Amino acid sequence: MPRSVNSVASRAKRKRVLKLAKGYFGRKKNVWTVAKNAVEKGLVYAYRDRKAKKREFRSLWIQRINAGARLHGMSYSEFMGKVNKAGLELNRKVLADLAANQPAAFEAIVKKLN
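RE: above sequence
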């Protein structure tokens, strides 16, 4: 019995990978073996950085809240302790946005905590 090859599926797979490699430089965009490796590596980076992005944004929010709290004579840990004790249902993202873009609203929250 002759060997069977599914060239339709093989071509579709190559086409899909080369489409993902669109915009890459040099042989990475049009040579199958090079493009396959580049796309796999790119997908690994994408997965890793989706996790890292969450860490980086949380860190940024903490810095903004700390800066806002220090303007009112409080450290970040004191401020967050009082927020939790008061039972405020505001997360760090919202608090950071208030501290950076609406200082009056942030000041009202600080006064409510004292």
